[in-house]
């Protein structure tokens, strides 16, 4: 049966080869007979003979179904069309599930043939866009359509001998990547005036971009950066946040030289600063992205050696100053956690140059340590980490701040000891980190902290706090 199947599959191929030979389109005959003879049958007769083959009808149906399904997938995700709403989706049947199943069956047949044929490479980009549109959890998808789209994507990977989606996009020496062709499919929908009309195109573009890593991203940077900037510049916070993630991924997976070329890094830096000023919800992605981008634009202040007698203010100072200004005035607990989580890497990057911001940094640390952030106390733990890094780095400037900082740390120990809402692990972390900061302050004050702690007895605090303070018995070196 296997031999019969192979013989059946080879018949259309042999017939096509003979027809191409009659038309003098085969590579071997192109050099020998540049012009057709008068004895050839009319072209209409040859086309009718081609269309009589079974595979011709199959190819026509496959191509038509792919085109129709891609158009349907995009139309159902347009924000201005009624089918986007859940009520509309319930009235209009979704053809994506059945379409995915039909395409999956066809790709299984392609996978049995093996190799990356011309038909497979031609139809792969729109099919990939179609499957990505439907395997994500979006308003225009259902559990059945998502499962069918995932099956279609897996069948596509098997047919093209790709390991995963990233391999499909980037390829290697043996398998061709399809990133450029997929961008060709998406490009008409990614222009400034069109992309907002199609809700799906931004998610497909973001998924495609996030699959591509270094070094495959740099050759396509000129096509990936403009749509990311468009998303980041949108007034809707969810689009702005998606653009921030795309830009951060580009910064992480592009060489610094490519980012600095054509002033791209400066443009991205300006776009990153806009959400910091006006959109608080974007800070979770903006602040880490800014930190990575600053390493591309300039040398970190902490990398300057002792020979650099004068460290001029730079963009790191501007960003840290802006962060501290926003942190001091922020009253939303969620945003305070975002700021607190982003601050320690910036203090690390600044090095001894953090001395230029100690006054404002002190106010921020004291303010955040006073506010309860249960149950995980993320803000307090991060602020204690910032205080530890600042003391170690700028210890000569801490002697004049010992009284204020020690009073705040002791109050924090008392609050933690009586807070019944904290878990044992969180309480232990806060206690250990606070004790470490007190030890560092004692080292900066040449033992003055120990003399102050000797005045504390059981009438002032609980036994747990006394045991914690008893551990501060050795001086910490500078």
TrEMBL record:
Q: Where is the composition biased (Basic and acidic residues)?
A: 1-10
Chain residue ranges for the region called Disordered: 1-38
- A single GO cellular-component term on record: nucleus
Compositionally biased tracts (Low complexity): 11-38
Q: Which InterPro entries match?
A: Tti2
- Family that this chain belongs to: Belongs to the TTI2 family.
By its UniProt entry, which PANTHER family does this protein fall under? TELO2-INTERACTING PROTEIN 2
- The molecule here is called TELO2-interacting protein 2
């Amino acid at each position: 049966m296997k031999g019969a199947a192979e013989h059946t599959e080879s018949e259309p191929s042999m017939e096509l080869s003979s027809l191409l030979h009659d038309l003098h389109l085969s590579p071997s005959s192109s050099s020998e007979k540049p012009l057709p003879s008068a004895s050839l049958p009319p072209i209409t007769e040859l086309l009718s003979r081609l269309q009589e083959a079974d595979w011709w009808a199959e190819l026509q149906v496959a191509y038509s179904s792919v085109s129709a399904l891609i158009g349907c997938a995009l139309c159902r995700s347009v924000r201005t069309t009624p089918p986007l709403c859940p009520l509309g989706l319930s009235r209009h049947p979704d053809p994506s599930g059945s379409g995915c199943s039909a395409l999956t069956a066809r790709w299984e047949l392609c996978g049995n043939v093996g190799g990356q044929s011309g038909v497979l490479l031609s139809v792969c980009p729109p099919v990939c866009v179609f499957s990505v549109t439907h395997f994500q959890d979006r308003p225009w998808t259902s559990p059945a359509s998502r499962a069918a789209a995932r099956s279609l994507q897996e069948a596509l990977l098997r047919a093209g001998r790709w390991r995963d989606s990233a391999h499909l996009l980037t390829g290697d020496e043996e398998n061709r990547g399809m990133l450029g062709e997929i961008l060709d499919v998406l490009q008409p929908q990614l222009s400034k005036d069109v992309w907002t009309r199609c809700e799906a195109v931004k998610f497909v573009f973001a998924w495609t971009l996030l699959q591509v890593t270094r070094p495959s991203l740099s050759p396509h940077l000129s096509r990936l950066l403009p749509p990311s900037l468009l998303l980041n510049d949108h007034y809707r916070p969810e689009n702005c946040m998606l653009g921030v993630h795309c830009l951060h991924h580009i910064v992480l997976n592009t060489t610094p030289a490519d980012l600095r070329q054509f002033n791209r890094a400066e443009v991205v830096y300006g776009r990153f600063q806009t959400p910091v000023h006006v959109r608080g919800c974007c800070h979770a992605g903006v602040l880490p992205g800014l930190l990575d981008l600053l390493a591309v634009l300039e040398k970190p202040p902490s990398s300057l050696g002792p020979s650099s007698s004068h460290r001029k203010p730079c963009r790191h100072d501007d960003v840290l100053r802006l962060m501290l200004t926003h942190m001091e005035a922020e009253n939303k607990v969620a945003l305070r956690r975002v700021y607190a989580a982003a601050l320690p890497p910036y203090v690390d990057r600044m090095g001894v140059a953090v001395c230029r911001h100690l006054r404002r940094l002190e106010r921020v640390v004291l303010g955040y340590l006073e506010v309860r952030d249960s149950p995980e106390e993320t803000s307090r733990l991060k602020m204690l980490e910032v205080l530890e890094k600042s003391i170690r780095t700028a210890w000569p400037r801490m002697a004049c701040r010992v009284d204020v900082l020690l009073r705040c740390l002791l109050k924090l120990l008392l609050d933690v000891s009586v807070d019944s809402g904290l878990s044992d692990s969180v309480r232990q972390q806060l206690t250990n980190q606070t004790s470490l900061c007190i030890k560092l302050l004692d080292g900066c004050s040449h033992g003055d902290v120990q003399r102050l702690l000797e005045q504390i007895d059981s009438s002032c605090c609980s036994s747990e706090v006394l045991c914690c303070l008893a551990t501060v018995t050795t001086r910490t070196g500078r």
